């Protein structure tokens, strides 16, 4: 799993300041433009250099920050897809699954070593360990995406009005996995389930 690099000595306040400056610069310039060292206030540069971030390393820092932000946004959107896939009764007659119960059951089924690896990196556990009822509901949601794409004309208008969430979640999945191959989307959503369950378990752990 790719890990985000931590810049030694870069304080939280300074990091937040840089993030704000990046957002402001992105909004004020062309969408493809990137903030540069020269764009920073002169008074800020020595503070960053004292914390190990120099002009030479700044482009990599900006790239890293944007990539990390894009990853967090993408994974957050896929979390919503997973929770919908588990709970919605709209697109399938399969029994709904409570996410918190699923997270606990999944963790309880792992042996101690596998559980430790999973907590360090949820993708260290193969997607074949995803419970079959979960995989079935994910498959049903993917089928619902396909069915909606096949509809045209008046049918499409009706579906758009009745099923906005399926349409939006379908777009999230297609954007996340642009190859659009069913196998890639299925694997990607199974991995998203693993990430979501790790996060949910750790949030609920003290209450169990």
Describe what this molecule looks like in 3D.
66% of the residues lie in helices and 0% in strands. It is mainly alpha-helical and 208 residues long. It folds into 2 domains: 1-56; 72-207, no CATH class.
Annotation keywords:
mainly alpha; about 210 residues
Integer tally of domains = 2
End-to-end Cα distance: 28 Å
The amount of beta strand, in percent, is under 5%
Write the H/E string, N to C.
HHHHHHHHH
Mean pLDDT: 82
Structural class: mainly alpha
User: What helical percentage do the residues reach?
Assistant: 55-70%
The biggest beta sheet is recorded as: none
Q: Give the oligomeric state.
A: single chain
Please state the CA-atom Rg, rounded to the nearest Å. Answer: 21 Å
* Tally of contiguous helical segments: 9
Report the strand count.
Answer: 0
Shape: globular
Taking pLDDT < 50 over at least 5 consecutive residues as the criterion, the unreliable ranges are 1-6
Quick take:
By secondary structure, the protein is mainly alpha-helical. It has helices at 12-28, 45-50, 58-87, 99-108, 112-120, 132-150, 153-162, 164-176, 182-204.
Helices and strands in order, then pairings?
Layout lengths: L11 H17 L16 H6 L7 H30 L11 H10 L3 H9 L11 H19 L2 H10 L1 H13 L5 H23 L4
Helix pairs in contact: 3-8, 3-9, 4-9, 6-8, 6-9
């Amino acid at each position: 799993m790719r890990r985000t690099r931590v810049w030694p000595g870069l304080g939280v306040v300074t990091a937040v300041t840089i993030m704000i400056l990046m957002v402001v610069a992105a909004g004020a310039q062309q969408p493809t433009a990137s903030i540069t060292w020269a764009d920073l206030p002169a008074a800020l540069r020595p503070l960053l250099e004292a914390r190990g971030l120099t002009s030479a390393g700044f482009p990599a820092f900006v790239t890293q920050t944007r990539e990390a932000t894009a990853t967090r946004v993408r994974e957050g959107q896929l979390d919503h897809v997973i929770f919908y896939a588990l709970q919605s009764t709209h697109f399938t007659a399969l029994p709904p699954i409570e996410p918190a119960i699923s997270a606990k059951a999944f963790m309880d089924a792992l042996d101690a070593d596998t559980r430790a690896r999973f907590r360090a990196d949820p993708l260290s556990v193969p997607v074949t360990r995803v419970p079959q009822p979960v995989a079935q509901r994910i498959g049903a949601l993917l089928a619902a995406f396909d069915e909606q794409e096949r509809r045209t004309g008046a049918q499409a208008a009706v579906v758009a009005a009745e099923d906005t969430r399926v349409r939006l979640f379908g777009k999230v999945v297609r954007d996340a996995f642009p190859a659009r191959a069913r196998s890639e989307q299925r694997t990607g959503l199974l991995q998203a389930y693993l990430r979501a369950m790790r996060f949910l378990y750790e949030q609920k752990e003290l209450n169990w």
